[in-house]
Batch of 2 targets.
Target 1
Amino acid sequence: MVAETPLAPLKADVLDKLRQVSTSTLATQLYRRGFRQPTLIGLKLLSNVVDGFVGEAYTMRFIPAREDVNTPDPYRSGNTLQWETIENVPPGHVIVVDSRGDVSAASGGDMLMTRAMVRGAAGFVTDGGLRDGHVLGDLPFATYAREVTITTRAASHHVADVQTPISCAGVAVYPGDVLVGDRDGVVVIPRAIAEEIADPSLAQEQMEAYLGTRIKGGEPLWGIYPPSDETKAQYEAWRAAAADASGSLPTSTASDFLQAATPIPVPETH
């Protein structure tokens, strides 16, 4: 475990804004800034109760277990970093595990996930497997894994480090990075640009909700997606009308934004 350097806190509204944005939108915003692959490919949300999470990364790194180090009784082997992680993760943080993509043994199970949930963790993400999938499916806690596997962690994994830079599903994750998960997957936002990306991501989410409604209404892609200057002006006019009707600019999710706003006028075609 490396010595932790205190990180400057994120502004209070950054995570709230990111909560309203899909992982697809975030991946697009990151792509525009040169981050081509921020997505943890192959990981699936196991919970049927929650739809995702937003949280700061609290990292854990596994290496292969070795018989002279990892005895059949992990509690007495001296390697208790997994339990220490669960008991020390700050509220609102997501535990992110580098399991080397190895699903031969689980990164954890229902007891550890339940304890992390009760302690206020935002979620648990591993590029390996998790146990007790039938329990995790009913747990109101965001758990992501490549597979459900029944073999206990100590059979294949040794916990080597906590709160150090890791690779998860081939993506670099540093302690304090911001992770966002939904039913499509998980995306990693470098902490240094989390504040920068929050507002344009929310703006894109809201605009695309408007554009999607026009596409559903029968309009062609040309000039709508991506939007032309004319379409952008029509969106801003519609948004201003919605603000006048409600007394303020909308700050809710894109779907709520559309439902609460005035009907979208479809421009006449000639």
Target 2
Amino acid sequence: MKFRVLLLLITFSCNYFAQNRIQDIDGNSYQVIRIDSTDWMTTNLKTTRFSNGDSIPTTKNSKTALSNDTNKVYRWAPAGDNERIKNQGYLYTWASVVDNRGICPTGWKVPSDSEWKMMVDKLFTEANSIPVTETENANFTYKKKLDNRDIPLLKEVEFAGGRMTTGNYIFPQSFAYYWSTTIDYKGFAWMWYFSSTSVNHYNFEVNGGLSVRCMRTNSN
């Protein structure tokens, strides 16, 4: 599998402040922060419907395997456990993320890979004296702890893990994986993931399940 990992060692300062809350079509409420001119949800999406009211289905068996050669619209509870949805949201397939019915609240969208990178750069770049290590494999050493309590975008992150196309759930409580809308190559799209020690850039199979954050550009 082709991949690239960006390890960012964190020291934090940035222009951000809290905004009002927003609601999705199901009435779920999300805190919002502004990073320069961009607004971001600070918790994971947990809608069961697209913005036009159409349902986002789930599989009858939470561990049903999906073929990776056909894009499927699905959502699942993290680790297949419905008790996790309240705090961790749903895991969605990439097809759900890019569906033109809109998975985010009206006026909001799932960020592209470049928009994720811009946000990460705003919070964690060399401008803030943060060393960045880029490598072609995942064999790296964590060198500095990321303190989520000091980072408003991340402080409410629940590490929901992900879901493989095989139906296996991976790393609940250890990683928070987020889709971008950007395809890498056939069957794989770019995502960003956070642990307690790093921020990483990777590709993931499109019929797997990952968390979603929504954003919007604000001209005010």
